[in-house]
Design brief:
ATP binding; single chain; 5-stranded parallel sheet; Helicase, Ruva Protein, domain 3; Rossmann fold; alpha/beta; Arc Repressor Mutant, subunit A; globular; AAA_16; ORC1-type DNA replication protein; 3 domains; 17 helices
Length: 419
């Protein structure tokens, strides 16, 4: 009887019409809008299209680096322009492929994804397994696929700075020159780091010869327009009048991040849904903003090792427990050691802790400053949380790990609550 009652409850819920969302996919961050819904990026679309124009004639497109803050439309524009090039190519066989380098974060993984995406096994008779081949074997199969199926390919490497080296840029940009393939290859490398292109290896720069396009942050008016184009994700009359302006204003105050604005709007709708409300209100937006910040940092640091989380927790604990703006490595190591004792975690060497701090800075979680104290003092490194990050959210997220268990034998001072 209980089982049947449970089934009835589930069936009843599934049969109900969603009171808030009409087409929720429109407010999913990964949703790629139709061209008429792309706001405030006409100049960037025009500039990138100009660089890739040769592709539709079967010639080599320029290699391009797109950089700018997260959520400024880089990936969206790259996908749109690559798709448009393919649609307008006539008899020229153009292939396009998108690679998320934060997921495919090694050269081998990225080449495997490119080869599998571009392959049509029924035409090439080539099988490309997801794993199991040497890097050179993946390259060989990729170039054979290109020669059999395409005249030109446009490869989008999103978050290209996540690769530990630039070898994939070197290999792909020189593939025609070195006789590996007759297919013309155009690369679009995307980075959130403004200075990433400057740090590329000189040999890579020489081979790539990239054009650079900077994507500026969206302003509040543009963000309102972007969200306005997604209003039909919701049922008629569900959004109160101040919801979209407030979502846009919050995002504009932070980084002009369209992803953040869309994320907050979607989460506000979901909170209204859970509350049983028939309207999305300002209160839902404010609660959603906080949840979005937590989600963003869960995504950012969720994959960090326990040791890196402890180092980050040491920095945030110092921020919360002192009036200082930045902290020396000695302070960080001392607090990290106390955290390890409190959580029953073995410590790492001072050198490894310094490596962890540098890695957190590479991920734009921490900010570093070097100070030369002269011959007697040497070089001292100071670290602090990036000023744009919310201290409470980062600290809470960093400390939220199932492996952080305080041993019963520890003293009262060795408690997570004291950090």
């Amino acid at each position: 009887m209980d089982k049947e009652g449970s089934q009835d409850i589930a069936a009843e819920i599934f049969a109900q019409e969603d009171p808030i969302f009409r087409n929720k996919s429109l407010v999913e961050v990964e949703h790629v809008p139709s061209p008429e819904r792309i706001v405030g990026r006409d100049d960037e679309i025009r500039a990138l299209s100009t660089e890739l124009r040769s592709a539709v004639n079967g010639d080599s497109p320029e290699n391009v680096i797109l950089y700018g803050e997260t959520g400024t439309g880089k990936s969206l524009v790259a996908k749109h322009v690559a798709k448009a090039a393919k649609s307008n190519a006539g008899d020229v066989r153009i292939g396009t492929v998108y690679v998320d380098c934060s997921t495919d974060d090694t050269e081998t993984q990225a080449i495997s994804t490119i080869a599998r995406t571009l392959n049509d096994e029924s035409e090439t008779d080539i099988r490309v397994p997801e794993t199991g081949l040497a890097k050179a074997a993946y390259y060989t199969r990729l170039y054979t696929i290109l020669d059999k199926l395409y005249d030109v390919v446009i490869i989008i490497l999103d978050e290209a700075d996540m690769h530990p080296d630039d070898q994939i840029l070197m290999s792909l940009s020189r593939a025609v020159e070195t006789g590996k393939t007759g297919c013309r290859i155009g690369l679009i490398a995307i980075s959130n780091k403004v200075r990433w292109a400057e740090d590329l290896n000189d040999r890579v720069k020489s081979s790539l010869q990239p054009r650079e396009l900077n994507f500026h942050s969206y302003d509040a008016n543009q963000l309102r327009a972007i969200l306005g184009h997604r209003r039909d994700a919701f049922r008629e009359g569900v959004l109160s009048d101040d919801v979209i302006p407030l979502c846009a204003a919050y995002a504009a105050q932070d980084h002009g991040d369209a992803r953040q604005a869309i994320d907050v709007l979607r989460n506000a709708g979901m909170l209204a849904q859970r509350d049983g409300s028939d309207t999305v209100t300002r209160d839902h937006v404010e609660d959603a903003k906080m949840e979005a910040e937590k989600d963003r940092f869960r995504d950012l640091i969720g994959g960090l090792t326990v040791q890196k989380k402890l180092v980050l927790s040491a920095v945030t604990a110092l921020h919360k427990g002192t009036d200082d703006d930045e902290f020396s490595m000695a302070q960080i190591i001392e607090t990290y050691t106390k955290l390890c004792e409190a959580t029953g975690t073995s410590t790492r060497s001072d050198r490894r802790v310094r490596d962890f701090v540098r890695r957190l800075a590479f991920l734009d979680i921490l900010e570093l400053r070097k100070q030369n104290l002269g011959r007697a003092g040497g070089i001292t490194i100071y670290a602090r949380l990036q000023p744009d990050h919310d201290l409470d959210i980062v600290h809470q997220t960093a400390m939220d790990d199932d492996q952080f268990v305080v041993g019963e034998a520890e003293s009262e001072n060795a408690s997570l609550d004291s950090f």
